[in-house]
Design goal:
Strand content of chain B: 15-25%
Helix content of chain B: 40-55%
Largest sheet of chain A: none
Number of strands of chain B: 8
Order of helices and strands of chain B: HEEEEEEEEHHHHHHH
Distance between the termini of chain B: 47 Å
Largest sheet of chain B: 8 strands, antiparallel
Structural class of chain B: alpha+beta
Number of helices of chain B: 8
Oligomer: heterodimer
Shape of chain B: elongated
Number of strands of chain A: 0
Distance between the termini of chain A: 20 Å
Structural class of chain A: mainly alpha
Largest interface: A-B, 20 and 23 residues
Shape of chain A: elongated
Number of helices of chain A: 2
Chain lengths: 67, 247
C-alpha cells in the first residue's frame, strides 16, 4: 500500500517535470511570467492526479482479481 | 587584436576609473603625501584633478578630465608626454617631438613608431623605479600612477604592466570570501527563474531539432526524448535546488 502510493507520488513528480517543462516556456512565450507558485500548482496537481488514477487502477485490479 | 583591446582598456581605465580620476577633497588638495620614497601631491588645474609624483629623480604629472588624460614623465634632459582622449586619439611625445595615433591606425606600425620614439628613454626608465617604490601601496594616488605606467607600456606594446596592474587592484581572495562568492543563490525564486530560463532554452533547441530533422520520423522522436530527459533533469535539479519544493 505504502510502496504503491510512493510510486504514484514519484510518477507524479516525473509527470510534473514534463508538464512544467512544456507549460513554463510556452507560457513565457505567450507573455505570461510563471512564478514559482505555478510550479507548486503543477506539482500538486500532477501528484494528486497520479495518486487518484493509480488508486483507481489498483482498485480495478483488485476487483478483477477478487471476482 | 589583443593589444588593441589592451590599449582600449588602458585608455578607459586611465580616463574613467576612480584611480585615474582623482577626486581631491578640499582639505587634501595640494597636500603632499609621502608614499614610500616618493611624494604624491594632489591638486587641480583648469578645473581638472591633477596628480604629481616625485621620487628617484623622476617627476610624474597626470591631469585627468572628462574627455582626456594627459601624462608627463620627466627627468633632467628627457621628457615623455602622452595625451589620450575619449575619441581614441593618442598623442605621444618626447622632448617636443610628437606622434599622433587613432584607434583605426595600423596597430603594429603605431607600436613600432612609439617604440622608436621612446627608445632609450631615461624618463621611462626612471618611472620604473618610481613605480617600484609605490606598487605595493593600495592608496588611490599610487594606483593612479600605476595606471599611467601600464598605459605608457601598453602604447609601447608591452602588456606585462597592465597585467600586473590588474593583479594589483584585484580584491583579496581569502578562502572564505571565495566560498561566499562561488555560492549560488539557492532561494526558491532564483531556482525557479533558472529552471524557467533553462527550459526556454531547451524548448528552443527542441523546436530547432524538429525543424531540422522533420523529414526523419525516428529523429523527431529522438528530439522529443531528448527534450523529455532534459526537462526531467532540470525539474529534479529545481527540486533539489530549493530544498524539495519548487518554491
Amino acid at each position: 500500500m505504502l510502496l504503491w502510493i510512493l510510486g504514484e507520488v514519484v510518477v507524479g513528480l516525473l509527470v510534473a517535470g514534463l508538464v512544467a517543462g512544456l507549460v513554463v516556456p510556452a507560457s513565457m512565450r505567450f507573455g505570461f511570467d510563471p512564478g514559482p507558485w505555478v510550479g507548486v500548482g503543477i506539482t500538486a496537481t500532477c501528484i494528486v492526479v497520479c495518486v487518484v488514477v493509480g488508486e483507481r487502477m489498483r482498485g480495478r485490479r483488485n476487483a478483477r482479481e477478487s471476482s | 587584436m589583443s593589444r588593441r583591446l589592451l590599449l582600449g582598456v588602458a585608455l578607459f581605465a586611465g580616463i574613467v576609473t576612480p584611480g585615474g580620476r582623482l577626486e581631491a577633497s578640499g582639505s587634501n588638495a595640494e597636500a603632499p603625501r609621502a608614499v614610500g620614497q616618493s611624494v604624491l601631491t594632489l591638486g587641480w588645474a583648469n578645473g581638472e584633478p591633477t596628480l604629481r609624483a616625485e621620487g628617484r629623480g623622476v617627476k610624474f604629472f597626470k591631469q585627468v578630465g572628462k574627455q582626456r588624460v594627459a601624462i608627463r614623465v620627466e627627468v633632467p634632459g628627457d621628457r615623455i608626454e602622452v595625451e589620450a582622449d575619449a575619441a581614441g586619439v593618442v598623442r605621444v611625445g618626447r622632448n617636443g617631438r610628437f606622434l599622433r595615433f587613432q584607434m583605426n591606425d595600423d596597430f603594429a606600425a603605431s607600436i613600432a613608431l612609439v617604440q622608436e620614439l621612446t627608445a632609450g628613454s631615461r624618463a621611462l626608465a626612471g618611472l620604473e623605479g618610481l613605480v617600484a617604490t609605490i606598487e605595493s601601496n593600495p592608496q588611490q594616488e599610487a594606483r593612479a600612477v600605476m595606471t599611467s605606467y601600464a598605459l605608457l607600456h601598453a602604447i609601447r606594446g608591452s602588456a606585462a604592466p597592465s597585467r600586473a596592474m590588474a593583479n594589483a587592484v584585484k580584491p583579496p581572495t581569502s578562502p572564505i570570501a571565495m566560498r561566499a562568492s562561488s555560492r549560488k543563490d539557492e532561494s526558491p525564486a532564483a531556482c525557479w527563474a533558472e529552471f524557467a530560463v533553462t527550459m526556454n532554452e531547451y524548448l528552443t533547441q527542441f523546436n530547432e531539432c524538429i525543424e531540422t530533422y522533420w523529414w526523419i520520423p525516428g529523429w523527431t522522436a529522438t528530439c522529443a526524448f531528448q527534450f523529455a530527459v532534459q526537462a526531467e533533469l532540470a525539474w529534479f535539479w529545481t527540486l533539489s535546488c530549493s530544498g524539495g519544493m519548487p518554491v
